[in-house]
Design a protein that fits this description.
Elements (H helix, E strand, L loop, with lengths): L18 H6 L3 E10 L2 E11 L4 E5 L6 H8 L7 E6 L2 E2 L5 H7 E4 L11 H6 L14 H13 L15 H14 L4 E5 L7 H16 L3 E5 L3 H7 L2 E6 L2 E6 L1 H4 L2 H8 L3 E5 L6 E5 L10
Parallel strand pairs: 3-8, 3-9, 6-7, 7-8
Antiparallel strand pairs: 1-2, 1-4, 4-5, 9-10, 11-12
Helix pairs in contact: 5-6
The protein binds adenosine-5'-triphosphate and magnesium ion.
The site of adenosine-5'-triphosphate has 11 residues, from helix 2.
Length: about 290
């Protein structure tokens, strides 16, 4: 799943404040963000930046606001107050298609239209590139084929999405996000439902996209995978950022206790040297043969 051909290379964008100014800014930044569902405030006065060309990973317990933050960063959720800046410009100033050409979001629980095939769903990733005068083109076809190949679902192209396994479906959604060919990819638990080999393949694909110059933001629950792949780690708790930085600085036993209430040791991953969380044994639940 590592072969992403040159046709999926990062699109250059010329709009905005010019290359020098754009480079100085983080590509995505949230400032004083307050996010709420009806009257329930989930995130309050949160400020965070996604470093340019980083592979940023967000970790934190269930319900702490990770998906909510990702939605706001992708402009699919409007903040109660505060703002999101894309290359230093308020994201609300951009038209929907402009945003969609820059940011692809893989939601945590995407819902497919009924009776849609894999090929047609992935083709929807090309929507921001279509226009009144710009119909389906060979470039769109290549983008779809590359995305299907990169996620190893080309063989499923004619199948109905509703008839796939959870893991197959997850890779199809990832293909749709890839087909969008954005330089910013926001992935909410992209490895959910995947077996361990496919998890690592998706993570390797993400790392490959990152090496090509894309900026990735992924929510992950596997802390050890997060530590292996992230160049920048953000730990959230109760709707707030409690730590951010290099995996070595963020993943400590004290922080795991604070964020997850988890008693653990943090040891070097024998394979990579990155921090690895080893949970403490808990009273008598582990049976030995
Ligand atoms: N559509 C919604 N309407 C109302 N409340 C919501 C909605 N979506 C999320 N919430 C609430 O907002 C809070 C944060 O949810 P969010 O989905 O952002 O958490 P999360 O960190 O992504 O959790 P998980 O790890 O379980 O995916 C939770 O208390 C959740 O119940
Ligand atoms: Mg979530």
């Amino acid at each position: 799943m590592t072969s992403v051909t040159s046709s999926t290379s990062v699109p250059t964008h010329t709009d905005g404040a010019g290359p020098a100014a754009a480079f100085a800014e983080p590509p995505l930044r949230a400032e004083g963000l307050t996010l709420a569902y009806d009257k329930t405030v989930v995130v309050e006065d949160l400020t965070v930046s996604v470093p340019r060309e980083s592979f940023t990973v967000i970790i934190g317990p269930n319900g702490c606001g990770k998906s909510t933050l990702l939605r706001a960063l992708a402009r699919t959720m409007a903040p109660r107050s505060g703002r999101v800046l894309l290359d230093g410009e308020p994201i609300t100033a951009l038209r929907t298609k402009q945003v969609a050409k820059r940011i692809a979001l893989l939601p945590q629980s995407p819902i497919a239209p009924e009776a849609i095939t894999v090929g047609d769903l992935v083709a929807r990733g090309r929507y921001p590139h279509q226009g009144l005068l710009r119909q389906w083109s060979p470039a769109d076809e290549v983008a779809v084929r590359d995305a299907l190949d990169a996620t190893e679902v080309a063989g499923l192209r004619e199948r109905l999405v509703s008839e796939l396994s959870g893991g197959q479906r997850q890779r199809v959604w990832l293909a749709m996000a890839l087909a969008q060919q954005t330089d910013l990819l926001l992935l909410d638990e992209p490895t959910t439902f995947l077996d361990i080999a496919h998890q690592l393949e998706v993570m390797d694909l993400c790392a490959h996209l990152h090496e090509q110059g894309r900026t990735l933001v992924a929510v992950l629950h596997d802390i050890n995978q997060a530590a292996r792949y992230a160049t920048h780690l953000i730990a959230m708790k109760d709707g707030a950022v409690v730590a951010e930085g290099a995996p070595h600085d963020v993943i400590t036993a004290e922080r795991m206790a604070d964020v997850f209430g988890l008693a653990c040791r943090v040891v070097p991953d024998p394979e990579t040297g990155t921090p690895m969380v080893v949970p403490a044994r808990r009273g008598g639940h582990i049976r030995h043969a």
